[in-house]
Amino acid sequence: MPDLAIAAQGLSKTYRLGFRARKVQALTRLDLSVAPGSIYGFVGPNGAGKSTTIKILVGLVRPSAGCATLFGRPVDDPRARLAVGYLPENPSFHDFMRPLEVLRYLGRLSGLSGAELDRRAEALLERVGLSGARDLTVRKFSKGMVQRLGLAQALVHDPPLLVLDEPMSGLDPIGRKEVRDLVVELARQGKTIFFSTHILSDVETICDRVGMLLHGQLVREGPLQALLDGSVRSVELRCAGLDEAAAAEVRALAAAGGPVPEGHAFTFPSIEAASAGAALTLGRGGRLLALQPQRETLEETFVRLARASGAPARDALAAGGRRAVG
Question: Measuring CA to CA, which residue among 57, 64, 59 is closest to residue 26?
Answer without folding.
Answer: 64
